[in-house]
Amino acid sequence: MINQHSHRKDEHVSLAEYFNRANHHDYFDQLRFVHQSLPETDYQQINPSTKLGPLTLKWPFYIEAMTGGSRQTGQLNAQLAKIAKATDLAMAVGSESVALQDPKLIKTFSIVRKVNPKGIIFANLGASHSYQDAQKVIDIIDADALEIHLNVPQELIMPEGHRSFHWLKNIKSVVSNVKKPVIIKEVGFGMSKETLKQLQSIGVKYANVSGHGGTNFAKIENYRRPEKDLSYLEKWGLTTPESLFEARPFEPEMKIIASGGIKNPLDIAKALALGASAVGVAGVILHSLLRRGPDKTIQMIKDWQRGLKIIMTMLGYKDIAQLQQQRLLLSPSLISYLHQRHLT
Ligand code: FNR
């Protein structure tokens, strides 16, 4: 099973883990909730489920796209699926393009559906693929939705990456031909209102802004370069809170998903309060799985679920729709960002 693509998948996992600590930024500390002493709520009555078009997610956060495509990452996918099943979380697989090139690798993705037959699972593919390919990767895991990732900086820093980026027409074709919800997602560089406008103009209804602040593919791909000469690009991108503000004018017609640097239930609550309909978590869950194993990761996620309900109870909001209306206090640097980007 060792080919160039499988090797890259293994490297992404080990480098994401290697840089895990260095990747921690606290951009969500630029936001605060206002404490309320009389919330008039009941922990037992909190409803944490969220709607994503036709899909109802029992929890508003899910395991974001990471992996598959090698023996080792197939095993990780099986473990992630077990975790998703035990905690009622939705889950995305990593890019399935390697399975289109080498059918032997299909099982490193389809294992996820085998382990979790009734779960909500998202397929994943790059933006240069045809809608026929998109349908194939949906079928491989009987997916409930499809994620199409945008990763221009990653490709350009990757020595073997793409160099030409005319994706809009292609995305339009995928969005108009695929019957399942199609989520256009970044991979940790964030999304601007200009990008979201382009996506809106071709009929995109779901966007995951996946911002800077967590897993850093500029860093990971630069490390894989023999010259390691592009380190000055490691801070490239909009943070997840900045991206969520960029996305606000597009809601509710466009459903916005947050990811990038989510490290606890308070970050999840803040992302929801900035209008997100759901929140993806990748690096922190991978780190827990690799360091502490599936059972402790299940425990961590259950703690997060309890934590999120505690936060909602304190704020006085009994469902996600109410939390999405919450106003947050912003740091001076975020206020300056909003002024410069005409987002106030
Ligand atoms: C990723 N991510 C990713 N995204 C995607 O759309 N397709 C992919 O194949 C991958 N592969 C991948 C591998 C590994 C090891 C990691 C950690 C991440 C990106 C991921 O879905 C997410 O957008 C970013 O990681 C930001 O979220 P975190 O990690 O900061 O929570």
TrEMBL record:
NCBIfam families named in the record: IPP_isom_2
Protein name per the record: Isopentenyl-diphosphate delta-isomerase
Main location: cytoplasm
Organism: Acetilactobacillus jinshanensis
Similarity comment: family membership: Belongs to the IPP isomerase type 2 family.
CDD domains reported in the protein's UniProt record: IDI-2_FMN
Enzyme nomenclature, EC number: 5.3.3.2
Binding-site residues, FMN: 65-67, 95, 124, 185, 210, 215, 261-263, 282-283
Keywords: Cytoplasm, Flavoprotein, FMN, Isomerase, Isoprene biosynthesis, Magnesium, Membrane, Metal-binding, NADP, Transmembrane, Transmembrane helix
Function: Involved in the biosynthesis of isoprenoids. Catalyzes the 1,3-allylic rearrangement of the homoallylic substrate isopentenyl (IPP) to its allylic isomer, dimethylallyl diphosphate (DMAPP).
Catalytic activity: isopentenyl diphosphate = dimethylallyl diphosphate
